[in-house]
Specification:
2 helices; globular; single chain; 10 strands; alpha+beta
């Protein structure tokens, strides 16, 4: 049996996370993201329900991956340590759909003991609902996919200016 490349430990980003048990090479397959295969309709229903609960409890929001146009994967169901991989705006891993299965691969060399992270790829539509605590220099303070971070920065700058002008400060 192959040695596990990860271990579960406390994370500074969000409660628990996965950490490298040994050095992991760029492009190396680390772990499969598993769960229950569900329809898009069921996926939306579960996501909305969990989002309400998570806002109150502070636990992770949604553990759903898109498989294709019809199906998603609910990572909360079953044994799935991959769901503990936290978001980072400068992730060292990426999630890739390989023939209908989600696999986590190393985007770059990962040192033993480093936390495994990837960009969750959230759309900016509800970015205020998803604060980010990754601490990366690329972080905009919210979990938003890379190609939308500049837009979020601009929106936040405008909001800040409006607040300052509304308070009468220059």
């Amino acid at each position: 049996m192959a040695k596990k490349l990860y271990r579960i430990s406390n994370s500074e980003i969000h409660q628990n996370g996965l950490f490298a048990n040994s050095s992991i090479g760029k492009g190396e397959q680390i772990i499969q993201y598993t769960g229950e295969k569900i329809s898009k309709k069921e996926s939306e229903k579960r996501a909305l329900s969990w989002e309400k609960k998570a806002k109150k409890s502070g636990e992770g929001l949604v553990y759903i991956f898109e498989l294709n146009d019809k199906w998603d994967l609910d990572g909360r169901v079953g044994e799935n340590p991959a769901r503990l991989i936290n978001h980072s705006c400068d992730g060292n891993c990426e999630a890739i759909n390989v023939d209908g299965e989600i696999w986590i691969f190393a985007k770059k060399k990962i040192k033993e003991g480093q936390e495994l992270t990837y960009d969750y790829g959230y759309d900016m539509e509800h970015f205020l609902d998803h604060p980010c605590r990754c601490g990366s220099k690329n972080c905009v303070g919210y979990i938003v996919r890379e190609d939308q971070r500049l837009k979020v920065r601009q929106l936040l700058k405008k909001r800040k200016k409006k607040k300052v002008s509304a308070s009468g400060k220059k």
